[in-house]
Every structure is written in structure tokens, then in C-alpha cells.
Amino acid sequence: MTATLERPPEVLDEVEPVSPVAELPTAIRHARRFPVVPAGRMWRVLVAEGSMRPALEPGDWLFVDTTTGRWPRRGTIVVVRQPASGMLVVKRVAARPGDGLQTAAGIRRLGPTEAWLLGDSPEVSVDSRTYGPVTVDHLVGRAWLRYGPLGRPVGPIGRPRSRLARGEFRRVGTSPTGDR
Q1: How far is CA 25 from CA 19, 38, 61, 151, 159, in A?
Q2: Distance (Å, rounded) from C-alpha 108 to C-alpha 82?
Q3: N or C: more exposed end of the chain, with fewer CB within 10 A?
Q4: What is the DSSP string of 145-176?
């Protein structure tokens, strides 16, 4: 799933108008549950494709915390620069550094800075199954709040059951932190 950074006016024209008055109370209520991110370290990202359906739809606006310097927990949605093209993409962390994965090619042990990223719609997603593990230097940040467009749920982005939990990949080891 590709994403675009907020840039006036060409990106803003891609989404339907959002009433700030209607959305603001809900967004503020949800934002109070999360730690404050330093000014200038939060990005607004527009979801442009459907590889993260049903969790995210094209046209969804996300707040992304760019203060993240290491891979977040499994199941977390992140924005990364795709290794081959440098294009911004939105994916879910399926395995973290130190984890082992059973894939069609055999067991793959991730290095100390690598993560295995997957889209929620495998039939359309270009992800780690295509380009392999992604290093932390490609990590832009953690998506944590959807705030638009009007008509879509507003609030924190949850962590549904991962593809590993569904049995599509089998984890053969855990990260040194024991993170689940």
C-alpha cells in the first residue's frame, strides 16, 4: 500500500473534504489516550492503495509517529520506505529482529535490525514476501491514529490477529525481548 505525505493542494484534493468541527471532538478524545509526540515529529499520511484492506482503506488519513527508532511490536502498522524504490508504503510488522520465519523457501532468521512486513490483503500487497526483510533504516514511523475521512472510523489503529497467528507464516523463534 503506498502512502503520500501531506502536500497542499494536490494531495488534499485526493480525499473528500473532512469537517474539522465534526471530527475534532472524537479525535481529541482518542488522542488523550496516547503519549504526546514532540512537535514536528508527527506526519500526516494519506493511504493511496488497498493493500491494507480491511484495516485501512484508500483515502484514510493517518497520524504517524516518526520518533520511532526501532521496530514496534508485532501487529503494529508502520510506514516505511520500500527497499527497492524508496516509495512510502504502509505495512504491518509480522516479525521482529531475531525472529525466525518458516516460509516457502525454508527457515529465515531475521537480523538484529530487520523486520518482516506484510500487507493485510495478500492478493494485492507487495511486501516482504516480494522484497524480503526490511532494515530499520527504512522505517519512517508507526501509524497510530486514523482521523479521516468523514464516514470512516476515527481513532487508534488496532492490532488485529497477525498473519503469523493465522498460520500463513510460522514463527520458529522469538526476539531477544520476548515481544509478542
Answers
A1: 11, 21, 16, 15, 23
A2: 20
A3: C
A4: EEEESTTS--EE---PPPTTTTTSSEEEE--T
Question: Tens digit of pLDDT for each residue in 63-112?
Answer: 998 888 899 999 999 999 999 899 999 999 999 999 999 888 889 999 99
- Residue 112 in any domain: the answer is yes
- List the beta bridge partners of residue 55: none
Q: Looking at the domain assignment, is residue 51 inside a domain?
A: yes
Q: Find the domain containing 103 and state its range.
A: 3-173
CATH of the domain at 84: 2.10.109.10
Residue-by-residue DSSP string for 12-48: GGGS----HHHHHHHHHHHHTTSPPPPTT-EEEEEE-
Q: What pTM was computed for the model? A: 0.70
